[in-house]
Amino acid sequence: MAKVTVMDWERRVQFTDGVFDRVLPPGRHRYKWRRSSLLTVDMRQRSTVVQGQELLTADGVTLKVSVLVVWRVTDPRAFLTASTGAEHDLYTAAQLAIRDAVAATTFDDLLADRGRLSAGLAEATAAHLDGLGVELISSAVKDLMLPGELRRAATETLLARERGKAELEHARAEAAALRTLANAARLLQDHPALLQLRTIQAAATPGTTIVLTPDPSYTPR
User: Fold this and answer.
1) Measured between alpha carbons, how far is 12 from 43 in angstroms, rounded to an integer?
2) Which of 99, 122, 125, 169 is the most exposed place for a label (fewest CB within 10 A)?
3) Residue (of 19, 55, 54, 53) closest to 36 by Cα position
4) Buried-exposed string 176-213: b where 16+ CB fall within 10 A, e elsewhere
5) Digit-coded pLDDT (tens) for 58-113
6) Rounded distance, CA 57 to CA 101, Å?
7) pTM, rounded to two decimals
């Protein structure tokens, strides 16, 4: 007989004479080492990055997209026996899911809302994982890379939009200033005494020069 210690974050799958026997939980266990094989499965949460792949949008634009998949093992036996490589199958499922998501979206929609690619991505990936003994926790777009020409075009579009906003705000400020001046002119026209009062106030300020224009209708006596 032999002894083995299973750590809290792992499970040992025991095969006796090549046939599944049991899953050893955390703790100290005895087993027949001559007839048994023990395979270790890590039960902790894992992250897998699906490296950037070139994909076509609905309107034929090529993008490079990478995906971050977070998952964990829930059934150690199925994880080892249902597939020759469950993690590879997970990787492939995420590739297929992001390919379909990009193919169903136009380039303009992606620029307007990049987060839309991640919506429903986990569900589409999990649909290919039945029986593999894994649980998909999340799946989201990690990086979205545009070709050089498209990056420059997108930057120029953004700059043009921001310049247009700045010019619009400047025009609004000028229009507001003109409205204020027009209101002041009407007020002085209706109340000439206000102009004289304002002139006296300005003259009281040290260093201020006041130039008075004679009334052309005035005739000296």
Assistant:
1) 10
2) 169
3) 19
4) eeeeeeeeeeeeeeeeeeeeeeeeeeeeeeeeeeeeee
5) 888 888 899 999 999 999 999 999 999 999 999 999 999 999 999 998 888 887 78
6) 9
7) 0.65
